[in-house]
Amino acid sequence: MRVVVDLARCQGYAQCAFLAPDTFRMQGEEALMFHSSPDETQREAVLRAAAACPVQAILVDLLDTVAIPPVTAATAATSGTRTV
Prior knowledge:
Blueprint: E1 2-5, H1 15-19, E2 24-27, E3 31-34, H2 43-52, E4 58-61, H3 73-79
Antiparallel strand pairs: 1-4, 2-3
């Protein structure tokens, strides 16, 4: 499992830190610290924390259950997706 947090979106409500304290923690009033590759035993807590985020700033990539195709130049051209 891989966790990514959009820190530009995160408002520091700390719901994730309450629901998955082994993965997320607030440092000071606004700094969110997190493990980007938490242990699989934390899966349920991390998913609950991601769902509870008021601004949906947490993305959980379940590498073993979801296959996400890569965006290539060909698929970007046909789908209208832009990449940087």
